[in-house]
């Protein structure tokens, strides 16, 4: 049996053992077990469209552009009756107020690319909103391209729009969002978007915590991280073929101020943070990036460098080689997402809900209970 599959199949047994006689901190296995399972709420879902009339969508290939930016957005939210993480469209909203997390999809991704993660957060009491970014989503007009330089402002506009629901206008989400508890997370290019919403000139002061997953961040210059900052956790995999751990998540972790956390999932892949389970090979990079090379993408990266004070040399080892991949067994996708769910829920519980008991979860002690995880941290 493959060692990674072994650790997944026997995770409940291991947790049960530590619950009974756990050394040191017996509450950690209990927290892991609770956070890896669906939360106390059911999961409602609806789709909304928001249009920013103040900013244009740029030209992209044969697409002439648009004077506005349209964000078709999926919203997951806690419901009154627990249904696990199964989505119930239009279900009644649970009473009370909840933190908001904006989730940003990756390049060639879309608002529903990581439903396993977004619905998991909703079951734990979060309103999660995931937009289709106008030019980087799967079905973008003119083909997906890098529009990273414009996406942080999309996140801020979406927050503006969602907080409008908090006014007493009879809206479905009226008074449901805790405007003092807003977080952001995102995958790949969306991970880069996540970082840009809390650092640099596009930092949004309403965002209190950030969680980039396998972020594309090698183009960000060192000085970019000197402005802004919130508690942040980088979660990435050691077998990521698109955004290598060392030149992206690990490098960014070393540059940001504390509180900061760096989680490396052994054998974790790039696509494993989505709902897809695809074997990652070096040929896959050629296929995916061969689909949409265009002048707008190059221009987008050039604009990004101007904003973040970086350079292309920082991404010289962006892709993993075949030999590097062969040396690392690939983890099961469901285990990667389960570990991610534990970390995300625990991190946001601490920094958006101020639940101090989760501080112990985000320390190196967790490594002994989750053998596929290595976690580094600095609080001050």
Note down, in words, how this protein is organized.
With 380 residues, the chain is an alpha/beta fold. The protein has one domain (3-378): Alpha/Beta hydrolase fold, catalytic domain (Rossmann fold). The protein is 30% helix and 19% strand. The chain has 11 helices and 10 strands. It has helices spanning 3-9, 11-21, 27-36, 115-123, 151-163, 189-196, 246-255, 282-289, 295-308, 322-326, 333-351; strands at 42-52, 69-79, 87-89, 98-104, 127-131, 177-187, 207-213, 232-237, 260-265, 373-378. A 10-stranded mixed β-sheet has the order 3-1-2-5-4-6-7-8-9-10, sandwiched between helices. The longest helix has 19 residues, at 333-351. It is globular and about 50 Å long.
Helix content: 25-40%
What is the CA-based Rg, rounded?
A: 20 Å
The end-to-end distance, rounded to whole angstroms, is 42 Å
Classified in CATH, the superfamily is: Alpha/Beta hydrolase fold, catalytic domain
Number of helices: 11
């Amino acid at each position: 049996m493959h060692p990674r599959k072994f650790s997944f199949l026997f995770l409940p047994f291991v947790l049960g053992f530590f619950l009974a006689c756990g050394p040191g901190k017996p509450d950690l296995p209990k927290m892991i077990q609770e956070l890896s399972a669906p939360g106390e709420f059911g999961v409602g879902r609806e789709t909304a469209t928001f249009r920013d009339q103040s900013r244009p969508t740029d030209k992209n290939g044969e697409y002439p552009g648009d004077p506005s930016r349209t964000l078709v957005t999926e919203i997951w939210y806690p419901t009154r009756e627990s249904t696990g993480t199964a989505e119930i469209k239009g279900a009644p909203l649970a009473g009370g107020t909840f933190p908001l997390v904006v989730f940003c999809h990756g390049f060639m991704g879309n608002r529903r690319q990581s439903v396993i993660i977004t619905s998991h957060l909703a079951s734990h009491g979060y309103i999660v909103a995931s937009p289709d970014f106008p030019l980087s989503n799967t079905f973008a007009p003119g083909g997906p391209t890098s529009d990273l330089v414009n996406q942080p402002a999309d996140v801020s506009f979406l927050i503006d729009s969602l907080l409008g629901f908090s006014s007493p206008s009879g809206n479905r989400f009226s008074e449901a969002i805790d405007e003092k508890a807003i977080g952001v997370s995102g995958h790949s290019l969306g991970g880069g978007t996540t970082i840009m919403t809390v650092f640099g000139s596009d930092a949004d002061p309403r965002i209190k915590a950030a969680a980039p997953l396998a972020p594309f961040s090698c183009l960000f210059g060192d000085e970019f991280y000197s402005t802004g900052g919130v508690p942040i956790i980088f979660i990435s995999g050691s077998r990521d073929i698109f955004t290598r751990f060392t030149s992206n998540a690990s490098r960014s972790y070393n540059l940001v101020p504390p509180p900061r956390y760096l989680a490396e999932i052994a054998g974790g892949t790039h696509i494993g943070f989505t709902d897809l389970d695809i074997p990652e090979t070096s040929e896959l990079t050629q296929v995916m990036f061969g689909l949409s090379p265009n002048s707008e993408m190059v221009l987008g990266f050039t604009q990004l460098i101007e904003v973040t004070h970086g350079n292309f040399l920082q991404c010289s080892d962006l892709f993993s080689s075949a030999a590097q991949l062969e040396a690392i067994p690939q983890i099961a996708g469901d285990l990667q997402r389960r570990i991610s769910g534990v970390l995300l829920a625990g991190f946001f519980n601490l920094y958006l809900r101020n639940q101090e008991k989760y501080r112990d979860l985000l320390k190196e002690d967790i490594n002994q209970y989750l053998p596929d995880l290595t976690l580094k941290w600095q609080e001050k």
